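Long-time lurker, first post. I've been practising inverse folding by hand and with some scripts of my own, and I keep getting stuck on stretches where the structure tokens seem ambiguous. Below is the full token string for one chain I'm working on. Before anyone asks, I'm not after the true native sequence, just a reasonable design that respects the backbone. If someone could post their per-position residues I'd love to compare against what I wrote down in my notebook.
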């Protein structure tokens, strides 16, 4: 349950103003994240959607407990909050509420949560919720945060409790599967929080809080982020394997739920992308007004370099792999799979294209379902060659715009970091922009992140479409290579010696 900032200006008087102050004490931006991890656990535990009333009752009780924990956290940390720029406008440092009232409010929410959960859910769920509250408000806030660099690792147990609470609400027990869900959130928390703390390390240093970037430095923080990311992937795979062993109806219920969440997320992303051209126009207008028309010529050159690089990657790397590792005629292969890259081009999403990618690999290339169902979903997640290439060029472009030289060592760092960062990029539109921040940070361009990304956003949409097509082409090529290595016979129409 990391204590992210909820900046609230000091306000005085009025019912609405008072409500806003006390709402800010609960850190609502954190609460909704906790609720998101509660519902999937309830669905998995029930083998489908549980009673809607039970879901509502659990979420309300969880919100009360989390709100109480956050209010007590702000009460205990008011001295720290007053020293940090991002938190000094919270209710207590700003004087909008007295410490006494904040403490009473937090205790009352905790008591309300306990009563609500015992009466309307069950005793185990109530005990877990209040236990998480106590752990966060007392153990993490009063001791861990101020005394150890492992504060967020150990303290993250409180934020990982919602899956246990949701599972207990449905079953009245805590089982192995619920512990795996707990571990997914537990291992996600340090990587997520340390990435944010890289941007706020000066605040933590000023307040004397021993966060990892302050005590061990940026490089060690990045290594720890990578370590916990690998642990997160491992635990997630174990959970997926556990789901695969469920009875068919329970397994399908779980898969349908997560597919529905993914589909809803894609809808939201598409809404954002509809507005993106207008936002990009505003950004480019401001940048061109600042830097002049020469910037447009630089952007065109940057875009052409990315396009040529992507084309060479397909024409050389993928063609050689298809010819010599899979025994395919590259031209016939590309013609047969054209549908998948075109869909990828239109959606800018490897995940959205995945059903078509699998169908194309099986029907047109002759890859077996066993291979395609393993290689292609994995490829849509971690095979981001086009994204890695684009990020390397983008970093070099931004560095040149600012006149910052990058030597051979820095360029090698860019290549390695871009490759690793692209693996972590989600298969959704413009996800590479997010991981580009990591690559910029790796070569000391952190201060240029905001303006640098704004510079390239104007042409990113078309480049995103192209690199997604390249990523999907690479996925199918890899599937064909794996299928061939397993002794499978690929479709004659795309094999060497077949029609051209």
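-- Answer (accepted) --
I ran through it position by position. Result:
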């Amino acid at each position: 349950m990391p204590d992210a900032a909820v900046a609230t200006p000091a306000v005085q008087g009025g019912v609405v103003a008072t409500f806003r102050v006390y709402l800010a004490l609960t850190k609502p931006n954190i609460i909704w994240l906790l609720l998101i991890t509660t519902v999937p656990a309830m669905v998995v535990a029930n083998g489908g959607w549980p009673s809607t009333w039970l879901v509502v009752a659990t979420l309300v009780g969880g919100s009360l407990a989390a709100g109480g924990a956050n209010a007590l956290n702000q009460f205990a940390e008011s001295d720290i909050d007053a020293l940090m720029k991002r938190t000094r406008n919270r209710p207590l440092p700003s004087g909008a509420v007295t410490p006494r009232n904040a403490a009473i409010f937090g205790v009352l929410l905790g008591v309300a949560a306990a009563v609500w959960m015992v009466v309307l859910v069950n005793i185990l769920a109530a005990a877990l919720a209040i236990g998480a509250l106590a752990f966060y408000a007392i153990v993490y806030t009063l001791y861990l945060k101020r005394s150890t660099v492992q504060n967020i690792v150990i303290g993250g147990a409180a934020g990982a409790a919602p899956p246990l609470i949701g599972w207990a609400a449905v079953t009245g027990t805590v089982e192995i599967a619920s512990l795996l869900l707990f571990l997914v959130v537990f291992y996600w928390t340090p990587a997520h929080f340390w990435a944010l703390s890289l941007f706020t390390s000066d605040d933590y240093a000023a307040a004397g809080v021993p966060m990892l970037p302050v005590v061990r430095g940026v490089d060690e923080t990045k290594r720890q982020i990578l370590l916990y990311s690998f642990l997160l992937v491992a635990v997630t795979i174990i959970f997926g394997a556990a789901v695969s062993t469920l009875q068919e109806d329970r397994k399908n219920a779980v898969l349908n739920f997560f597919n529905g969440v993914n589909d809803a997320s894609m809808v939201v992303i598409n809404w954002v992308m509809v507005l993106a051209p207008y936002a990009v126009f505003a950004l480019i207008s401001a940048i061109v007004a600042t830097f002049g028309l020469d910037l447009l010529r630089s952007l065109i050159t940057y875009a052409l370099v990315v396009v040529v690089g992507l084309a060479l990657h397909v024409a050389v790397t993928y063609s050689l792999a298809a010819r010599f590792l899979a025994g395919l005629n590259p031209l016939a292969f590309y013609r047969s799979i054209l549908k998948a890259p075109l869909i990828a081009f239109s959606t800018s999403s490897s995940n959205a294209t995945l059903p078509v990618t699998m169908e194309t690999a099986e029907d047109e290339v002759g890859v077996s379902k066993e291979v395609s169902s393993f290689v292609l979903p994995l490829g849509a997640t971690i095979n981001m060659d086009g994204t890695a290439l684009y990020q390397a060029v983008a970093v070099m472009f931004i560095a040149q715009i600012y006149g910052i030289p990058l030597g051979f060592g820095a360029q090698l760092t860019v290549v390695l970091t871009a490759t690793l960062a692209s693996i972590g990029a989600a298969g959704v539109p413009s996800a590479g922009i997010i991981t580009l921040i990591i690559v910029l940070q790796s070569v000391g361009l952190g201060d240029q992140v905001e303006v640098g990304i704004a510079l390239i956003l104007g042409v990113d949409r078309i480049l995103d479409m192209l690199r997604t097509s390249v990523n999907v082409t690479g996925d199918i090529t890899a599937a064909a290579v794996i299928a061939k290595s397993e002794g499978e016979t690929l479709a004659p129409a795309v094999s060497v010696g077949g029609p051209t």
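A couple of notes from the structure itself: The longest helix spans residues 248-291. The chain has 23 helices and no strands. Happy to go over any region you disagree with.
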